[in-house]
Amino acid sequence: MVCVCVCRQEVLDCFKDHLLDKEIESQISQECLTQLKLAFKERGENIDLDSALHNACGQDAEQLCNSVSPGEAKVVECLREHDARREVSPGCHDLLQQREELQVKIPQVDYRLMTICKSSIHRFCSETHPRDILYCLEDHKLAMSGDVGCQRVITERQIEAGRNIDLDPRLVTACRKDIPKFCRDKKLQKDEVIRCLKGALDKRQSLTESCRIAVQFREQQSLMDIRLDAQFYDACKGEEVLKKCLDVPQGTGAIGCLKEFFGSKKGANSAKLIQNNECVMEVGRIMHEGVADIHNDPVLFTHCMLDLKHFCSDIPFGSGKKIVCLLEVYTTNKPSKLSDDCSRQVSMRVDMWDSAVKVAPPDSLPELASLIMQSEARSTILTSGTVVIIVLLVFGCFIGRKCRRRKKRGKSL
């Protein structure tokens, strides 16, 4: 390993790839490694200390971040936020991506993460391998309620990972066999590879076990925090539903966010709540995922935990079975045998499903219908208003509509 360099910037660029290779990194002395990581971290603190980034992103910084004071990585973070919204120049985008890929693989060089999350790293991740610090913080994000600044940084990093699969090495490793098999189109963008894997999971294609778990984990993260759902963000840009969802507290979850939105629109003309067809599709997808597994609706799951244990302990998770069980108990007993908290949450979701289904009238019924028809309480459920019908229709209708529309467009061409 030979590095011939003439300045600090070239030294760092020279060693960058070596640090990413664990075998080569082991050949570098510990003292040198410490100094290199410190230098990379300092470079991330101020864009003026990173001549390459300054040259590539200088104009973007002036146009998009002129009100941001330099230092403490504020300008760089501002650029990263605009990059996530695809608002920076191509050259700036490429270099920001390189910097982000280095930071996610070697978190110690991420100035903002290491500075703002210092106390949480000490509290939750003191025994974690340095390369896994970000993963450790992600796993404990909800537990660090007193460290709002760190939670915000972690969310920012998760949002970036949702747009670039290279920023999620765990997903890349878990799906290394699946990506060439299901997403072999070389023209796919880095965020499209993530969507491709999610699509393969939804279609129940034969993903490897490690990939299936990794994709499901990412899906659940997005449902826990709607900010991490790049598809929803892009499709609903400019829509009131997005603004509402960005304002809800962390931990509310995607379903909770939609509940807030539809709950605030009672009595409004449902057909005009969402204008963009693609946004309608994304709302349908989220509703589908929320009904498919009660874990994907953290607020409902938390409030109904004891009820699930009491009434639905013998019902397996997945395919909407736990939701159907709660609906059976809710609709067949008046007053409901569910606890007050759980009954209230189920009732609010009934209202939400009702509003959502008016926004996008369904064309097909999913597999959940068979579960209802097998239920001993099916007659009571089906005559209790629109409760289950709404669940059934919302659960999978949107994908069917979209596919048919695309086929019609194809024929007309």
Strand-helix topology:
Blueprint: H1 8-20, H2 22-25, H3 30-43, H4 51-64, H5 74-84, H6 90-105, H7 111-116, H8 118-124, H9 133-139, H10 148-161, H11 169-174, H12 178-182, H13 190-202, H14 209-224, H15 230-235, H16 240-247, H17 253-263, H18 277-292, H19 298-303, H20 305-311, H21 321-332, H22 340-359, H23 368-374, H24 378-382, H25 387-412
Task: Give an overview in words.
This protein is mostly helical and 413 residues long. It has 25 helices and no strands. Helix 13 crosses helix 14 (209-224).
Search tags:
25 helices, 413 residues, disordered C terminus, disordered N terminus, mainly alpha, single chain
- Relative strand content: under 5%
Low-pLDDT segments, ≥5 res: 1-6, 360-373, 377-413
Task: Tell me, rounded to a whole number, the average pLDDT.
Answer: 77
Topology pattern, helix = H, strand = E: HHHHHHHHHHHHHHHHHHHHHHHHH
- Straight-line distance between termini: 57 Å
Number of helices: 25
Number of strands: 0
Question: Which radius of gyration do the C-alpha atoms yield?
Answer: 24 Å
Helix content: 55-70%
Précis, in short:
The chain is built from 25 helices and no strands. It has 413 residues and is an all-alpha fold. 41% of the residues are buried.
